[in-house]
Fold each of these.
Amino acid sequence: AHLSLLSAALFSIAGCSNAATEATDITTATSSTVAKPNIVILYTDDLGYGDVSAYKSGTLPTPNIDKLANEGILFNRGYATAGTCTPSRYSLLTGEYPFRKKRARVLQGDAPMLITPEQQTLPKMLQGAGYTTGVIGKWHLGLGDGNIDWNGHITPGANEIGFDYSYIMGATNDRTPNVYVKNGRVVNLDPNDPLEISYKKNFPGEPTGKKNPELLKMKFSQGHNSSINNGVSRIGYQRGGKSAMWVDEDMADLFNDEALQFVERNKAKPFFLFYAFHQPHVPRMPNQRFVGKSGQGPRGDAILEADWQVGQFMQKLDDLGLSENTIVIFSSDNGHVLDDGYHDDAEEKLGDHTPWGPFRGGKYSLLEAGTHVPFIVRWQGKVKSQTSNALVSQHDFIASFAALTGQKTTAMDSENQIDALLGKDENGRDHLVVQGTKNSFSYHQDGWVYIPPHKGKGYATFVGNESGFSKETQLYNLSKDPGQTTNLAEKHPEKIAEMKAALEAIKAK
Ligand code: NG6
Ligand code: CA
């Protein structure tokens, strides 16, 4: 019964009062009585809270993302579940905290598929609701069974965990293989030039960044000294597959075309699109059209390019008359980083810009800027323009959209926060666990954050972002001190005890 009430509530948001009166049992309702808007997640890679000008803390203009925010809900307290990519994406797609999955940490390009085909996922759940599902862009959740033949059918992959269509970069733009994989097959591969991948050793005679710096157009600062493609050395080795190798400067246009075509193909039926941008992850190599445009070097230019993609995508929805029937979410997998392995002037040309917003830390961090990310939801004509202070997390999408579309979820950590996500509830979650690197945790509750003592350096090696690791217990009152300047642990032993117990209980679940 509570489900039908919920659907009635949603239809009152949607202004479809006729549908609300018909919605008796949402679980068995026909498609005309359940809300089935298209759902799109625009997911950036390493974009900081302060990188979106709608948050008014940086100096880089992102007009298209801001427009999305102005027409929808700008969340001030939106989170990824981890300070790096793979674990955040794992959570977003499965509704599970990453610590529940052993291998949910930054994966190499030959790592086996992390999500098993038996697991429930956001796209699979939505397939059950009649959606056509697609993923375009960065994957980084592993592929295959541990013994991939890159020249054959690569499986299990995105298609086996709920995506009807996939056009992906398998890992990251700084890792081999530097090829796109479409529905389990490498795109543009010449069978006479088979692709081989290794993360152990180089293939004899192949150049590397370390041996052949003269071949590089962008120099590495740390790691990233292995195989070279397009004048950039990467992590990992590759040989062959030359006709399939990507050109970094064309990647945005390619994903943009793919995304627009996906929408065009599916305009007549409900679709879910996970559109995972590669920017501003390293190597930052935007198209020539954006070079020099930000005044902040390649990192800023890459963000402007991503902002352009957002604009193109929104225009397409408008052109097809889909804006009022599409929920668009914009977020990032983790916070900002400047030098993440290449000399690209990110630090030198930063100027007054503050990608970390008002927060401490950044990518890899347990502190706020690691996981407190841009978070925008727009449902044109259905949800009022507003800012929200509700605590929202990406791993709640699965339970929330299951509730919206009349499906069930088995995801153990995901909460139905559809009211918060659609601007009807100002509170959202009352607690949240987020992860830094090395199995470290922060626990949020009622505006406070507790960080247990953790071994390790206070700064991420080379990168320089604060890790948040400390021998001391940390406790911050985020509602008064978002910049985490004052550790209140000694003042509130009772709060520490309570939060510690709550965190342990969630971990033990
Ligand atoms: C690190 C890489 C970094 C980046 C990161 C993954 C080095 C020195 N650093 O190991 O450049 O690729 O992994 O980033 O190799 S993420 O956003 O996909 O999690
Ligand atoms: Ca990332």
Amino acid sequence: MNTLMRLSLQFPQWRTYCIKQCAFAGAEAAARGKPNYEEFIGNHHQQAQRSIVVQVSSEKSYAELYNYCSRFGHIVTVQHYSVQHEDELHYMLLEYASSEEATAAISSSAYNAELSSSGGGNGVPVRSPFLWFRAPAPGAGRRGQPKLANNQKAHALHTIYGTRALNHEALKELLHGASSIDQQLHLLYERTCLNDLGVRMRFLAALQVEQAISGMFPEALAQPFGSSVNGFGKMGCDLDLILRFDGKTTTTDQDIQREASRLIYHTKENLSNGRSQTQRQMECIGDMLHLFLPGVCHVRRILQARVPIIKYHHEHLDLEVDLSMSNLTGFFMSELLYMFGQIDPRVRPLTFCVRRWAQSCGLTNPSPGRWITNFSLTCLVMFFLQQLRQPILPAIGAMVKAATATDIRVTEDGINCTFARDMERVGFQSRNTSSLSELLLQFFEFYSQFDFHNRAISLNEGRALAKPDHSAMYIVNPLEQLLNVSKNVSLEESERLRIEVRNAAWMLESEVENTTLSESERREQSWGLLNLFKHPEKSVIRPNMFFKPRMVEVSDLFDKSQSQPPAINYKSPTVRQ
Ligand code: GTP
Ligand code: MG
């Protein structure tokens, strides 16, 4: 009997739960206005099942497509986006009122006979939600199709221009136009965070994988995690996916009954070594994605990494995907971050700013290596908000203490991810009234003085602990407390962080004090976050208020050949250190 079964017998009142079955989600979420993580995931999973993506020749195809697709059911929303390929390719993401209607639209679709009859190659006849709206057959014309009333069009079409990140110039322009640093912080968050279309596209990518293997694995679940769902994702962020063949995070009543069944499935024997088993399976899934799934291209298998992953690009969604099969805590870690983001409206804008600042001064890098990751950086922000005299976030320990039987979650490999999901039970209320810009400055000041040499950061306790080993930076992994999330960070990179936070504190303090700029000066010169995000040629230690003044250039501290990250062409987001 596995851990989940045991727990469910131990706690008969434990509400059985399965991500796929979050059907209750919509109504509850609407009633409260703020969906919890499971509701958020459940809603989007269902929304993906009600959706199709149709490639069209241009945005002007909207009325014709709307008319055509309306024959299968009631269309709730249509969102247009384009992907820059050799040409600009246009797509419409349509959401129907029910999954049956979307299925009817998919089932009505034909395979591309034109390709085979013209000798242009035969498409593999795979069924998926990714479709193409071809021109009408000669003679069939557009005659007889009802014209779309203007109000109908306005109601249905919600065009969101693009799914890609704001470019540097547009962002600069936006921040110039703000009236204060606080407004800059808000604008940065609102205009760079992953939008609704971005989330829908990510759940469709997950559904495509899930449906592709559903014949053999009817319970399969491809579960998005990481920044696509934790509320800290920006436009264009990658999609982290965990693929589970059995699709469950906990046990249902039916499973408990099945335990007693006398009929047992014949199955293939597992390889003795779990890791090589996962690697073989992933190799096979990688081939399947590569050979059969429309839109999937540039499939790379990174199977020797600690957590093996398959990376691919989805050309219809313009999306990078990292698929793993064995990083089960990632989903619950994302839930914790999602909850932190929901607790206080300052958490996400602050984290966005810190992440962008770190990117602009080269502290983070898209390749894996000895530099701090976005995830570790996010942990630093959460910890800072926990340890304030007036904390803005509770310690995870307090959430664990407040957990009840309904909160029990244990991963298949036995890692306990139990913590209270209902913040009212935690009873945490923040009395902190600092503005975002004040918090940002305090963040930089706090880490300027933090003793990374001797102290470890514990989000579980909400305070620093003695460092248990000699890693340059130690962030206790919140869900596996014997592990260090930032074990990869080298001494040089840790020092660089210290230097950069000092520089940022120094710079931001003068910016915060400088409130005398007129509106025209703000438009013309660099100020506030614009100065924080400036990419200096060399980072310089400023004379500062915390340490005895000295002038040192970061690059002088290290071997120059090491100051640039080596080119590594893969990223393993799920490495468990
Ligand atoms: P971006 O992809 O950079 O936008 O952020 P992300 O939060 O998605 O980070 P990433 O793709 O690197 O990782 C995805 C998720 O995996 C994170 O949100 C964490 O939940 C988890 N994760 C990433 N790195 C680590 C790590 O070093 N240790 C542990 N335990 N979990 C990690
Ligand atoms: Mg990610």
